What we know:
Blueprint: H1 10-21, H2 41-53, H3 58-73, H4 78-82
Amino acid sequence: MEYLPYPITLKEVFRKALHNVGAGRVVFGTDSSYFPRGFRRDILELQLRVLGELNLSEEDAGAVMGGNVARLWGLQEVGALRQGRAR
């Protein structure tokens, strides 16, 4: 992250965000698009790996990776859909 006056890693960004606002207020997002660059699976995999290294609970990781957005938008969560349940 070159815009800061000091070096910082993705892991440190996640750690600070989770510490300061909690997993219930962090949402996964990406600036990847399908056109013209295409989806960047490597970026998703890196972010998932870093979140895993922070030893988040399954509940907190699920919140960050989709549960919070589902809650904010009033959508059903993917896990509930896979299990055939509606919220």
